Amino acid sequence: xxxxxxxxxxxxxxxxxxxxxxxxxxxxxxxxxxxxxxxxxxxxxxxxxxxxxxxxxxxxxxxxxxxxxxxxxxxxxxxxxxxxxxxxxxxxxxxxxxxxxxxxxxxxxxxxx
Length: 113
What we know:
By secondary structure, the protein is mainly α. The chain contains six helices and no strands.
């Protein structure tokens, strides 16, 4: 069965929402601010924030995205990889993150997820 990119994002995001182990009851409280943070601050500072945050919930969002991208790197290593990448790559990854997180936000508090 052939899936389009939107279906692949949705399927992966749904699976990740089922696996999330956030301390907060409301998963969307963690996921929703990530899009604003990336838009306002950029991908690299947002990843740095997630690594510096003591509850690690925001880091889980980036872990899910990195897994979706097919990488086995940690969030810290992926941040370093992106910091060394060219501007076009960073723009592409940021756009893909925004598209992926849109599904995480939708599925975050869905019953059964």
